[in-house]
Amino acid sequence: MVLIELKSVSKAYRKGRAEVWALDGINLSVTERGMVAIVGPSGSGKSSLLHLVGAMDRPSSGEVAVAGQALGALPENALAGFRLKTIGFVFQGFNLIPNLSALENVMLPMEFAGVAPNERRRRAEALLARVGLEARASHRPAELSGGEQQRTAIARALANDPPLVLADEPTGNVDSKTGQMIYELLREVSAERTVLVVTHAEALAQMAAQVVHMKDGKLTDGSQQT
Amino acid sequence: MVALGFRNVARSVPRLTAVTLLVGAGFFLMLVMHTIGRAVEAHTESLQRSVDATLQVRAAGSMGHVNMVAQSDILPPEALDKVKAIPQVEKVETYLLAMTPTEGHNFAMVVGFNPGDTKRLESHGEAGTGRIIAGRDLTEADRGKRVAVIGQGFARWAGIRPDKLPAELTIDLTRTHPVIFALDRPAAKLSIVGIYASGYVFGDMQLFMPLDTFREIYGVPQGLSWLYVKADSAANVPSVERAIRAALGDQADLIAPTTVAEFQTTTTRSVLRLTAAGMALSALLLAVIVYFVMLLVVRQRAWEIGTLKAIGAPNASIAAAFLAEAFAYGIAGSALGLGLFLGVGAPLAKRLFGLAVGPFIPAQYKDTLLDVLSVSAGLDPPQLALVVAVVALVSLAGSAHGLLHIVRLSPLQAMRQE
Questions:
Q1: Is A196 within 8 Å of A31 (Cβ atoms)?
Q2: B311: nearest CB among A57, A83, A99
Q3: Which residue of A has its CA nearest to B9?
Q4: Which of A217, B138, B165, B298 has a CA that sits 20 to 30 A from residue A206's CA?
């Protein structure tokens, strides 16, 4: 089953008076489950593609559909609901809320989804245990290492059991040994859902079931699928 | 998310301290202004309660005594109905007056009035009223009868003793005096049923009889010497005065107690305007402080807002967290302001009154008003309600712009604002 479908998607940004095309006529289909790596040099449009799929931004033209939902038709408040139920984000800078503990960070998306407090806690504890952080649940982000923070972020991304996890340079701020641990975790996660990873790391790209190469806002090397 | 908003306040202790001090100062100023305003209001209310709101109406240029040389003009019959028709008039008491010579005292006053009304002593104006010390007072049942009560001085002159009541007194209307002219009317015999004392020599030289008895004895079938008009409040005295002047025009003279009204129109209004302006400025200052703090907070936490949006937080939840944070700053500041107010509010209120309010009120009040004002720094339910309302309003108003900014941002825009 196709989970992500992009049809003739373009995205332009204004830089002063100039118009810069970050994405240029992208056609892409991604099926359910498995890991897809998006690789390419800086400025090739990888993150822009991820943002469109994650409903964080809207395309200049073309259609983006995720989990059967055409995103262009959704108003802003509906996009928040869509992100809550369908997408789990893992950022390069972890983006944990600093004054919440690891457990509270993982519980947060469930609060937005209206999960009861006891159930939130139970599920968050289980997710932290899954990423090996049950003993660090009460620690705040500043008290955690980079790897621990990213594992907490992955646990948070799984909080509402979304069919799609989007990871933007997930190993960009951790050392190589920790990076390896993050790769393994994401691969494990991709067994039960789709994980779309933007990465420079060759090792992570090699783990992916599908690799999408990008350059100058376009898919290359036959990555384009229609 | 509301709990997160309250917790966010503690993320920067220097900021919390600075905002608490600024907001606290604003709240302190507001409470002090409110206290001054309330003290002046209370003083005005006290004046309104203690000062008679009664106006005296007489025929123009006349004392209104029916047999007094050049002072015998009385009010026309329709005057009473016109005055009674004024909406703010609570009660009208009617009097007819005459004079009778009494050797040794020059003369005594003879007053016709409605039993039950105030026995007004002419020379005291509305200030005094006699107290029955022997016999009885006049009642409704005495209307039309030739009965009277008499002041103790008049009684002594007439040889009427308190232990010999009722006693008879004859009034000779033909007797004259340099200021009293004769009336071609038969002498009137009155039964004196009571003696009053006023504590004032001339006040005790009066006689009160029922109004219709007076009309019959003195041959005055209509018209009145005086109307005593009671306004429904001291505040309405000026409007009643204006209405009477409009209704009676040149026919009447008016003696009105203007002290309370003047105090209200000058001092009370000025102080209330000043304190209201001070409170509004304080609230504005608080809102501006909260505004800039929240603007700073929103800009500093742009990436956090973006993250919350990215993981599915609805705008309402994010706005609730930031509103709770603004409210928490307001609570911290108001707690400090309240503490300061309870501690040093009263002496500082007096000093502030002298500096900020004194220069704007009339000279006759500004030196004495502060001494009579009861300025106390106590907390009561209205003040607590004021604090809660201001905290809520200031938090909402001050953070409105920041909240709108949050709502309009897309997750990506928010993250890129950092």
A1: no
A2: A83
A3: A99
A4: A217
What is the side-by-side order of every strand in the sheet holding A164-168? Answer: A87-90, A164-168, A194-198, A34-39, A210-215, A218-220
- Judging contacts by C-beta atoms under 8 Å, the chain B residues touching residue A97 are 4, 304, 307-308
Cα–Cα distance, A205 to A31 (Å, whole number): 17
The whole model's pTM is what? 0.63
ipTM at complex level: 0.91
Q: How far B329 CA lies from chain A's nearest CA (Å)?
A: 17
What does the pLDDT profile of chain A (226 residues) look like in tens digits?
A: 888 999 999 999 888 888 888 899 999 999 888 999 999 888 889 989 999 999 998 999 999 999 988 998 888 889 999 999 999 999 988 899 998 999 999 999 999 999 999 999 999 999 999 999 999 999 999 999 999 999 999 999 999 999 999 999 888 888 888 888 888 888 889 999 999 999 877 777 788 888 989 988 898 865 544 3
Q: Cβ of B309 under 8 Å from any chain A Cβ?
A: yes
Contact A54 B7 (CB under 8 A): no
pLDDT tens, B382-410?
A: 777 877 888 888 888 888 887 787 778 88
Is any Cβ of chain A less than 8 angstroms from the Cβ of B314? yes
Annotated domain spans of chain B: 2-47+262-417, 54-232
Cis upstream peptide for B166 (omega within 30°): yes
Rounded Cα distance, B191 and B98, in Å: 18
Contact (CB<8Å) A97/B309: no
